[in-house]
Design goal:
six-stranded antiparallel beta sheet; SH3 type barrels; single chain; 2 domains; alpha+beta; 20% helix; Alpha-Beta Plaits; five-stranded antiparallel beta sheet; 174 residues
Length: 174
């Protein structure tokens, strides 16, 4: 009988994402730390640096026993993300969507906690995001595609042309 595993989001100490990730990998856990390339200005130059997509967050795929062991084993671990004290399982499809967004173009990828309610539901027609669905929003005169990561209460935004998406259905207004 195989032991059931799920993805969980871990909240880390500030700037400890990579350290926590490496500790989990070294212990043999399946772990995912979404990394993007950010351009930062220095006084004398511009540099590209690797940065976590979600500050102080990473993901680990574990079973119930491991869920209780990890807090004792990992330096920099703060807590598992919960809502009302209940464990939050991150869907495999949400992990795959994050991976697709990062492959698409990490330079235009942003995160937001903004909730989208009155937008069209769209689906990518082509490219590495083909088949990914989310809400289309217009920000600062440009079209941006937002996909809600429900278990974390956050959204991913990527800039795209309207030609790359098709309308699926309208969000029901309450």
């Amino acid at each position: 009988m195989s032991i059931r595993t799920n993805w969980y989001a871990i909240y880390t100490k500030s700037k400890a994402e990579k350290s926590v990730f490496q500790q989990l990998v070294n212990l043999g856990y399946e772990t995912y730390l979404p990394i993007i390339i950010e351009t930062r200005r220095r006084t004398d130059r511009t540099v590209n640096v690797e940065a976590p997509l979600f500050r102080s967050y990473l993901f680990v795929k574990i079973n119930e026993k491991q869920y209780s062991e990890i807090p004792k084993l990992i330096r920099g671990f703060v807590k598992f993300i919960t809502i009302g004290g209940e464990k939050i399982v991150v869907k495999e499809s949400e992990i795959e969507t994050i991976k697709k967004f990062i492959q698409y173009d990490s330079n235009t990828l942003q995160t937001t906690n903004e909730t989208f309610t009155l937008n069209e539901l769209v689906e990518f027609k082509q490219g590495v995001l083909k088949g990914v669905k989310g809400n289309l929003v217009e920000l600062r005169g440009k079209y941006k595609f937002a996909i809600r990561i429900e278990s974390m209460g956050t959204s991913l935004l990527v800039e795209t042309s309207r030609n790359f998406v098709k309308k699926v259905a309208e969000v029901v207004k309450n």
